[in-house]
Each structure stands twice: as C-alpha cells, then as structure tokens.
Known about the structure:
Blueprint: H1 14-22, H2 25-39, E1 44-54, H3 83-95, E2 100-105, H4 114-127, E3 132-136, H5 142-150, E4 155-157, H6 164-170, H7 176-188, E5 192-194, E6 197-199, H8 205-217, E7 224-229, H9 246-259, E8 264-267, H10 276-284, E9 287-292, E10 295-296, E11 299-300, H11 304-314, E12 317-318, H12 356-359
Parallel strand pairs: 1-2, 1-9, 1-12, 2-3, 3-4, 4-5, 6-7, 7-8, 8-9
Antiparallel strand pairs: 10-11
Amino acid sequence: MTVKTDPILRRWTLDEVRDLYQQPMMDLVFRAASVHREHHDPNEVQMSSLLSIKTGGCPEDCGYCPQAARYHTDIEENALMTVEQVKTAAERAKGLGSSRLCMGAAWRNVRDDEEFEQVLDLVRTVNGLDMEVCATLGMLTPNQAERLAAAGLYAYNHNLDSSEEYYKEVISTRGYQDRLDTIGNARKAGLTVCSGGIIGMGESIDDRLKMLLTLASLTPQPESVPINALVAVEGTPLEDQQQVNIFEMVRMIAVTRIVMPNCTVRLSAGRTTMSPEGQALCFLAGAGSIFAGDKLLTTPNPEAFEDLEMFNALGLRPTAPYAKGEKPAITEDPGAPGEKTRIKWSRPGHKIERNEAKRK
Ligand code: SF4
C-alpha cells in the first residue's frame, strides 16, 4: 500500500504550536485553509461509518467511555457481530455515501482466539465491498497486526486521547507507551494509522497541543487524525464535563491541519451539538472527514439526511474510497503464532472493579 507523505516534515516545538493556536482566529483559519488546499481537495469530505461490532463489558477504565464494565451506564451489551450483520450494516453505510467503515470492539486487546478469526472474516468481507476497512480493537501484537493486514485491513485506529501527562488522569489500566507500541505494530505490518484524541476531558490547551506534537513526531505521521469533542455520558467519571466551545474545536482542527498537512483530519464525536455553520468552519480549517450515521459506537451522531443537507448547502462532495492510498489486497493469512503471546498489564497491581450492581 502506498501512502502519500512528504519525505521531510517540519518538527514543531510546543512554543511554536502554542503561538499557532493562540493567534487571532481569522489568521489561524486562513493559514490552515491554505495548507489544506495545498494538500487536499477542499470541497471533498470523506464520509465514514463507525460500527460497534462488540459492545460493552470492557475491562479498561477510560474515564469517557460508557462501554467500560465498571461504570453505571445504560449501554446495551452486544456479542461480536456476525459476518451477515456486518455486511448488511456496511452495505447500508455505503448506500448512504460512506467510503470507509471503522469496526470497533470493546476489548482491552485482541486475543488469538475464535473471535479474532471472526474479525478477520469481517475485514475480508468489508474489503470485498470496496470500502476502506478500519478497525479499533484495542492493543495488538505484531502478529495480529500482520494478520489484519493480510485480511485486507486498510487502517488501524488507536487514539492517544491526550498528552502523556494527562492520559494518566483519564485512564489507569494502561500506559501511553502501550498505545505507541500498538501504533508501531500496526505501522510495521503496513497498515495506515488512524490516531487522534478527545478534547473537553478537563485537560489544558497545552495537553491538547502536546498530543498533536507526539502524533506529528511519528514517522511517518498518521494518515488519519480524529479530533473528538467529549460527549459526556451519564454514569462515566467525566459525566459532568462541560461541552467544548466550537471555536476550541476549530482551533484544534486548524493546528492539526498545519502540523500534519498530509493527514485526513476527522471531525469526529460531538457533532450533534455543532451547528452546520460551526462544522463549515471546521471544514474550512482543514477537517476532511466526518462520521456518518446516527450512532458513533454508542453515542448519538447527526442523522444521515442532516449531513446530506449540509453537504448540499456547502457544495461538498463525499470522497471516494482509497482516494489517498491503494486498496490492500487480501493475501494468505500468516496464522497465529505457535506459542500464545499475551500483552502484559503495564500497570501491575491495578484492580478491576467490575460493575457488579449492573451485572445483577
Ligand atoms: S478500551 Fe475502548 S471500549 Fe474499553 S473502556 Fe477504553 S475506550 Fe471504552
């Protein structure tokens, strides 16, 4: 798979990105829009769909996530979806204009078991529909990444969420380096990388910018960078967080665009509270993708007809699949390793308190 990247990309310092972020909004958006036009078609926005193929019951403690087993949320748990179910959902998403399907499973990490074999089948099936296939399944070993690549996976999503310092405030069951290791494993297997973060979790502006600097320092930089605004879900530790201001989102997208000019910036969670005008400003500042469909894993998202109306009003075109890279061929499955490999807990001694009340 060939991915267009500049051979030499500028290294930014925290002071520089802070200056970028703090400049007057019109100057920042103008600069970001200029970078966007140099590297992308400004009138194309990719529509992607995010499908929760296995919902809830996750042992991790991500403070924003309603799928963590320990939190008291109203999530409906679901076992791993079948090939038929995913195929139907993918065809529907494609029919509504999506060129990419991201499949999410609420797992801490992938295991070399029958469920993973089923996920490989799901990847092959969606690849066969000529959609970009992305997956977000938790931590991966190098062998698992290779098997996903052989099944025709196009991208692996693994978000950094925030700065290394603030990450510990939100998640205690794994470390930042675990995230970077999985991203490295996906990259080594030839997958494109989708990695971004969430704003509005109580972090500082510097935390947001440090996360962007870490992503921008990866070689090569991620091809896809989702920027999410926290959707505060009742029952999670972050349930009382205030909604982020649209201008903070625009600034974040603009800086992402400038420091990672080749990537697709994804205007992700939080769109239900953004007006079409606010979203238009995000597109001007460099956002080149949205998630379509009325659900983002488990949180609400605008209805398809609303997005269609917005696209029509703005004269936007949905991006075709594989516009920025070749379709991966399905090759022979290298198979699971003879000896089982396990990703170790990086935070030994951490106790998982399952949500016993909900279980009962
Ligand atoms: S690992 Fe994923 S599914 Fe599990 S709690 Fe964290 S965000 Fe939710």
